[in-house]
Design goal:
elongated
C-alpha cells in the first residue's frame, strides 16, 4: 500500500503542479488559452486524490471484513 500512496502523491502532485503553473501563466500573461488547461489538470488532480481516498477507505473496509 505504501507504493500505491507514493504513486498517488506523485500523480496528484504532478497534476496539481501543472495546473498551478498553467494558472500562473494565465494570471501573468492574461491569455485566455491557459485557464481551460489549468481547469482540466486541476480536475484530474482532484480525481486522482478522490481515487486515492476511495481506495484507502474501501481497502480498510475489506481489511476489517477479512480479519473480523
Amino acid at each position: 500500500m505504501t507504493i500505491f500512496r507514493i504513486l498517488m502523491v506523485l500523480l496528484a502532485g504532478g497534476l496539481g503542479a501543472v495546473a498551478a503553473l498553467f494558472f500562473a501563466l494565465y494570471v501573468i500573461r492574461g491569455d485566455d488559452d491557459w485557464m481551460p488547461r489549468a481547469r482540466i489538470f486541476g480536475r484530474w488532480a482532484w480525481a486522482a486524490i478522490l481515487f486515492w481516498f476511495n481506495i484507502e477507505v474501501w481497502g480498510r473496509v475489506l481489511w476489517i471484513l477479512i480479519n473480523w
